[in-house]
Request: fold
Amino acid sequence: MPFFFRFLYFIKRKIRSLFFFKKIHFIGDSHTEVFWDMEFSPMYFWRLTPKIKVVHGATATGLANPNSKTQALSIFENYLKEKVKKDDFVVFQLGEVDCGFTIWYRAEKQGLSVQEQTQLAIDNYSRLVHKSIDINGKKTIVCSAVLPTIQDGNNFGEVANLRKEVKANLKERTLLTLDFNRMLRRFAEKNCLSFIDLDQSLLNEKTNVIHSKFLHKDSKNHHLDSHSLAKIFSKELNFIISKF
Reply:
């Protein structure tokens, strides 16, 4: 980080500690790490202090499994109990791993219905979100899962290589993600929660997959371009938080 940016980051933290005391917690899988980039940028988070809890590989599907490799449920639940206060905001972002891999893998290997698994993932996710609602009420925010980025036939990179057994193509994975996000939106609306809909920005309606401008510059990296994504999140969060 250049010296000037480090200096601005120091100033930002000092201003927040003196004048702004509210926190915003970001909870989710590795796609949540974009908020670290926003924190270290001089352009974002001058009035709110971000706290970020990431569990790599976390899935909504796995939240019901106490023996999951990631132990995401217990980690997230403990974080909510120990760190989140009633005046804090909480943003959840999960689902990319489910829609891009887990649901398809279970369908192909175990013969399980894609539709039933998607509903199961939403149900598991909903129970976790309700634990946040119990703490801070309507200051819980749900974010849509990011659209898949791994191109058909691309087995390069650690994540793509791990997911190569799944035969679903990019358009099929995108359609499932859109369905997942519609169900997630309905859950948010039913519970009067704010919903961040990334699909309206990320989806290229001509190709029915993600806009290429949001892809990471490193083709082996399945995460989105953080600079482009940060602009969307900033706009959405500013609008939501202005209502409180």
User: Anything to note?
Assistant: The chain has a mean pLDDT of 93. The beta strands are 23-28, 49-54, 89-93, 140-143, 194-196, 203-204, 209-210.
